[in-house]
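Re: beginner question about structure tokens

> Can someone show what the tokenized structure looks like for a real chain? I only ever see the sequence side.

Sure, here's an example I had lying around. Input first:
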Amino acid sequence: MRFNGINHLAMATSDIDSTIRFWRDLLGMRMILGMGRPGYRHYFFEISDTCSIAFFEWPDISPIDEKEHGQPVTGPYVFDHVSFGIDTEEELWALKARIDASGFWVSEVIDHGFIHSIYSFDPNGIAIEFSVNVKDLDVRKSPVIIDPEPTATALEGPEPNPETWPRNTEQTPLSERRVYLGEGNRQFAKLKRN
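And the corresponding structure tokens:
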């Protein structure tokens, strides 16, 4: 199996307009889909040819408290931040200036050894990072472990080891495969009728 990216990250907002202004107008991500009905909205913004970020608008939520990116926490927690790739160092600096001019907080450029990054928060408090690969150091092409105390599992190497999981012995037969209708299908069915 080969993945082609993240189809979409699903986030939440109580204010779709400020979310559109930030992701589409400030960051320049094209809005590729807006679905809705009374009490429900789901909008998608294009990150790349295969990746997008989506937002549900739920009126009774509030922005999350901003937390320093990567700062350890205790208790239940799932998500720290999401990093978006940028092609060039010049684009990273231009984006930093653009975010700063908009009145949103943006960090200085940080050198992580393999990437240079800036950090910010969207209007919903979502921690975001923008990163450019350091020239001539692509960990995707040449994986590296520099952890001084890697776990035994990490020491097995970068390549997937599917033998650690039970083998899939059978696929669902064609005669039993069902695809169930979701909210988007209802929305697109209306579009097709028009």
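Each token stands for a local structural state, so reading them left to right follows the chain. The chain has a mean pLDDT of 89.
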